[in-house]
UniProtKB/TrEMBL annotation:
The chain crosses the membrane at residues 87-114, 120-142, 190-209, 229-251, 258-279, 299-321. InterPro entries: Perm_prefix_1 (IPR047928). Keywords: Membrane, Transmembrane, Transmembrane helix. This is Uncharacterized protein. The keyword Membrane applies.
Amino acid sequence: MTTLTERYVWAAARSVPESQREELSRDLAERIADTIDARIESGASDPESAERDALVELGHPATLAASYSDRPPMLIGPRYYFVWRRLLIFLESFIPATAAAASALGLVIAGGGWEVVGQAIGIGVTVAVHLAFWLTLVFALIERAGSGQWPGTGAAADGRGSAEADPLAWTPEQLPQLPESRRPHRRADLIATLVWLCIAAGLLLWQQFGVVWEDGERSAVPLLSPELWAFWIPYLYVLIALEAGFAVWIFRNDWSPASAVVNVVLNAAFAVPLIWLFVEGRLFSDEFLAVVSPHLDADAVRALSVLFVALVVGACLWDAIDGIVKAAKGGGRGTLSFPGNRSTRP
């Protein structure tokens, strides 16, 4: 089998129960090989084109796997079911959490207390329900208004005509990479994450012994309020430990929609308390503020405050979106047919 066929067989086999995977993999590999041989012998295609055409003819691997396992996708109809499911998982993995975090931040800035947690969770659940309902409704309308074949089945002769006719059509370029092909990239992510977490843990302790320099000498002025050691700094150390464990888990299991949600939660668990403490004036120590305040006017304080909040939110949002994109690309590259997912790198 070539790499492209291996990717197709692997993508199909992972969609069925483990007890059926070996049989499906064997039967599917033989079916693809027979189809390729038939195309080559008839002179219709060269080996590379014959393989691609054979996979296009088979259609989306998850759709094919559903027919093998007798689990027909009937929620909104078979034509768009798998596209609907992938898009729903993709959107639900970050939009409700982002809405909840944004509402919590607004309520905290408005002077709310711990009750904002319950309100933010309620908003997140409401957004999740509405998102699922309206997305399903849209796909149901598309299903009933559309015509023709399932996305990625049937075919133009070169496999491109159907994709042009139907933007939701499946093509072999969207096949996920094999797990062993992605491991080197995950190893680099793991090392970088653990190094940065160790640096963060060290800085969190080091700042307590003074970060202010005056006349070339360091003063014993802590950056963060010593009162935070009663709960919030240990809380941050717990988050660092959870992040380290999560990074190891990602290395061993790769990204998935569930891990992307966990990543969003971890980022929110860091950003929301940090911004709340800052807005309440409890984040930085009085000694540190006494040293820097004489050098700043009101406009500078306001600008730095906005910059601090923007940096915290931006960094956490970037990391959350990065995890979502990696999950959307199947832990490596190329399983979804929407935003940013057309890479065909090996």
